[in-house]
Sequence to fold (647 residues):
Amino acid sequence: MAQNLTHKILAAHLVDGSSLGTPGSEIALRIDQTLTQDATGTMAYLQFEALGLDRVQTELSVSYVDHNTLQMGFRNPDDHQFLRTVAKRYGIVYSPPGTGICHQLHLENFAKPGKTLIGSDSHTPTAGGLGMIAMGAGGLSVALAMAGESYRIAMPKVVQVQLTGRLQGWATAKDIILHLLGMLTVKGGVGRIFEYTGPGVETLTVPERATITNMGAELGATTSLFPADRQAEAFLMSMGRAEDYVEWVADEGATYDETIEIDLSTLEPLAAQPHMPDRVVPVRELAGLKVSQSAIGSCTNSSYADLKSVALMLAGKQLSETTDLLVSPGSKQVMKMLARENLMEPLLDAGARILEASCGPCIGMGGSPISKGVSVRTFNRNFEGRSGTQDAQVYLTSPLVAAQVALDGQFSDPAGWGAPPQFPELPGAAPSIRHLFVFPPEDGSDVEVIRGPNIVPLENFQNLPGTIETRIQLKTGDDITTDHILPAGAQITALRSNIPAISEYIFSRVDADFVNRIKNADDGPCRGVILGGDNYGQGSSREHAALGPRHLGVCAVITKSLARIHRANLVNFGILPLILKNPADYDRLEQGSQLTIPAASIQPGGSVTIDAHGVGPVEVINDLTATELAIIQAGGLLNYVRAKREH
Ligand code: F3S
Fold:
């Protein structure tokens, strides 16, 4: 039967007896490559170390440092040193700070058609521009993939995005994905893979395709991908990697779950307005809006072609005196190409600030706009406050639009801009930067992993006891977010590799005495239960919001209902997620209530009765699978996998 490209790659990676079922059914995949960035990488490697293997089992694993590259104080440099040495010890390629942004570097140097990649960063789908299935995942999933474990996902629907025509005038690849975001919204891609097809595909180069697959993450999609065709071959040749090219295209007559059609010749320059990437309008409608800052870069738009087009637009001109322009190249390769073609000079002469090849302003590391300032950015997210200035108004556009507003000091109608710069999109033979990566030795067993004071190995959690005797240490209201459980902020996130230290902040903004109380409980390994209301654990997926409570001795969370990702994290770290069968029991239970939970009697999907001393019996249910229950009983996923591998 004719297969689409998504099904072809997935089918070639199915393991554990799974098959391509109906959308929503679970599939298990062999993962060929992994990537991490520094903000999530330290924990992923601590988790990998806890599995006790001597070397990663993947074809390729790369550790990039691109988020927290500023080295003010010891924590970030210590993290970088840990990442460098842990990579050498276990067979991982290390990319030092300043080499570039993980996704741009991965595309240029390591992405391969037909392979699978998971990365502990949500924009990992960028590599789908080279015809691979590349997905963002939690750090623990990446650690397990490095250990050779399968990666399990719900079988996504495959959406065909049929492209016809060719981009015209000032419209760019960024406008294709902004158009889709405007049409489908930030929820439109959930449970879906977007596969690009049709005659318009061959008009787009790999860097242009990567802009589209990168920002497919904003649709909520599992991933996005393009075929590996002549354009992919040309890109790999220009990167000096012709041998990595293998054709991967959909079969003639392949079918899809859904289809969307876009005629590229009808698109015009677009902008996403504050504070959501799907609030998309034509740039012409913003004409006259004053702009105080323009920022070009990020993993969405920092390729050679992106920055060359900006340099050509700025050549011989000066920025508006009221607008700053920040340029962060995606990699040192991009910088070298710009230098080789004397394209740094027009950027510098126009007044642009050239930043390090890193995430920089995209992650709020410098480059914050002025108060209430309008900032035009080529990035993928414009959430309120992400720029570092709470009341800034951030618009997302292509590099061409961002360069034009930097010259004019305001938005204007592209109809009056004349002709856009024209040049071959690929650089010919690009200069290599492969020597800047640290490749691991064949045998790293005698390499010392260096841990500064901020890097603390993961502890071994104990198995769940058969009977839990403990107290409700905290009763919360409804809609508790992972931010309530563990607040964000530079001071706290700097402790991401030190669970004992970061745990001091658990529930710190909800109940300042919580940590003290649970630490002083004398109930053995189970020192407390959290009683939550509806939608407990909503918000960001941060694993530390489960790891921290687990470190403190929380062994069960009893709620009216639980958010999906937090529930998964609770299971992964061995905390029982229990649901009140009768929500009215929430009112009967109090902070301090002593509970006896017959944990050994819990059955997957079953109910048990808790003895709440002085209150009476309280029935709780669960929606756990047999495997999930076994994971919790083993003390978490790391213990479970370790035990499985020993047998
Ligand atoms: Fe970095 Fe921003 Fe991309 S933080 S990985 S450039 S979304």
Residues 66-67, 101-103, 121, 123, 298-299, 359, 362-363, 380 surround FE3-S4 cluster (CB under 6 Å). Residues 216 and 496 are 28 Å apart (CA to CA). The longest helix spans residues 75-90.
